[in-house]
Design brief:
475 residues; Rossmann fold; six-stranded mixed sheet; five-stranded parallel sheet; 19 helices; 15 strands; 41% helix; binds pyridoxal-5'-phosphate
Length: 475
């Protein structure tokens, strides 16, 4: 399997070659040259595989340049009961009315990003050893992504993480989660500013190409292809679980609803569907930041500016420019990089594009299964209350957005699976507002706020961040 740029300006490369990279050299995103096809007989033969065996079977189609025995060892090492808390890794929990929840948030940081990031940590360590290289990951976080990256990379050989976070702007729980890590290869930097200031520092450092190359600076953001491909696995796993649990057979349709921000999670569902998994609908759920919902309803894609982005109670979806969306539009345009590039040039110039009159846009539902909706703070409270009342279980605010929108698209006889993107405890304030009780704290996190913390405090200074990296690496 080789990978191309969505904008056509990259010679075909392998999985390992794009693993440590961000954007393609022409500014596009890496896409597989074709989608592997999985037939019903093959699905049937995967029925009794463990999660890690299934991950190997799916990923071997994408990571064709990693020897199979190595890939098998990597997935076996990643998807364990010790890390995810159960043999199933991603169990399904039934709610009501044909709705169920796919538990993706039982990993070390209690959010779905662990599913892919944990594999990425092992893949990075493996690949860096293979090419005898080191990598310094520089990132900015307002919470979830940074901690998922740190828990994935801690103790990994050849990798260091420098993570900027806004001082005093995260919850005590989030701070404790990140800053209590004592691993020498994890460096937390609390910047006396806002998340945007942290992001600007990362951008400035990355724009200094000489520094970037000398210090082997990399990222682990949501466009990373390794993350996307790892996420494809749980759609297969969920589909098989649903079929096995109900009186259904392989080939019967199942729908999915996905709380979305950067379009990474639901893109993996689109890929699974393109591979032949019998997914009926892919429901994109947004919060008040409804850029994606607007596109799927109207054909107009209009990213918002930061000042037009609402701060909501499902903060990990407060995103107004969906960085993975280009990969889907590439498929929608018939995988034509010239058409994609001209659309994106127009987007850069005009701030939006409009496909409402394009015959291909009219197929987003019939051909690709996409539907969408959005949710508000009041919807979240109501949904959390209702799920609690009817099932006695708590869902987090993002998953609540998913459940709310999913209910608009339930069809008789077709199971609807909502992807659980975080545990309620991460967003305890809103849960308390909704149901008046605090969500249970998982055992591993009890008392975490009292642990000693390791963090470097810093003013908003590109130079000081660069000095810190240079001192750590000795380069
Ligand atoms: C990252 C995240 C999302 C959004 O996922 P995308 O892949 O960016 O669409 C939703 N919910 C939670 C809790 C997240 O951390």
């Amino acid at each position: 399997m080789k990978y191309l740029s969505s904008r056509g300006g990259m010679a075909p490369v392998t999985f390992s070659e794009i693993l440590l990279e961000g954007l393609a050299p022409d500014g596009g995103l890496a896409v597989p040259e074709s989608y592997p096809q999985i037939g019903l007989a093959q699905l049937e033969s995967w029925k009794d595989l463990s999660y890690s065996q299934l991950a190997f079977e799916v990923l071997k189609h994408f990571a064709t340049d990693i020897p199979e025995s190595d890939l098998k060892a990597l997935t076996a090492k990643t998807y364990t009961k010790a890390v995810y808390g159960s043999e199933e890794i991603t169990p399904i929990r039934e709610l009501f009315d044909g709705l169920s929840v796919l538990e993706l948030s039982n990993g070390p940081t209690l959010a779905f990003k662990d599913m892919a990031m944990q594999l990425l940590g092992n893949l990075f360590e493996y690949q860096l050893a293979r090419v005898n290289q080191e990598l310094n990951i520089l990132g900015a976080t307002s919470g979830d992504t940074g901690s998922a990256a740190e828990y994935a990379m801690r103790g990994k050989k050849g990798v260091r993480v420098f993570m900027l976070s806004p001082a005093g702007k995260m919850s005590a729980f989030q701070r404790a989660q990140m800053y209590s890590l004592q691993d020498p290869n994890i460096v937390n930097i609390a910047v006396e500013g806002l998340f945007d200031d942290c992001q600007d520092i990362v951008k400035s450092v990355s724009e200094d190409l000489e520094f970037k190359q000398r210090q082997k600076i990399g990222t682990v953001n949501s466009i990373n292809w390794g993350r996307i491909s790892a996420q494809v696995v749980y759609y297969f796993n969920a589909y098989i679980q649903v079929i096995k649990k109900s009186a259904k057979k392989m080939g019967d349709p199942v729908s999915f609803a996905v709380p979305s921000g950067n379009f990474g999670n639901v893109l993996a569902g689109h890929i699974a569907r393109m591979m032949g998994l019998p997914i009926r609908k892919l429901v994109v759920a947004t919060n008040e930041n409804n850029v994606l919902d607007e596109f799927f309803r109207t054909g107009v894609y209009r990213p918002r500016k930061s000042a037009e982005t609402y701060i909501t109670s499902s903060p990990s979806m407060d995103i107004s420019k969906a960085s993975n969306f280009e990969r889907f539009v590439y498929d929608l345009l018939g995988r034509d990089p010239v058409a994609l590039k001209s659309l994106w040039d127009g987007l850069a110039k005009d701030g939006y594009f409009d496909l409402s009159q394009d015959a291909r846009f009219k197929e987003v539902e019939a051909k690709y299964g996409f539907q969408s909706g959005s949710s508000s703070h009041a919807d979240r409270l109501k949904t959390i209350q209702e799920v609690y009342k009817r099932t006695g279980t708590l869902i987090d605010t993002h998953t609540a957005d998913g459940v709310k929108v999913a209910r608009q698209f339930i069809e008789p006889g077709v199971p609807m699976v909502v992807l659980e993107t975080a545990l309620a405890v991460k967003f305890a304030e809103t849960i308390e507002e909704a149901v008046g009780i605090s969500p249970p704290v998982p055992e591993a996190f009890i008392g975490i706020e009292a642990l000693p913390q390791k963090v470097v405090n810093m003013p908003i200074s590109v130079e000081q961040v660069k000095n810190l990296i240079s001192n750590a690496t000795g380069l």
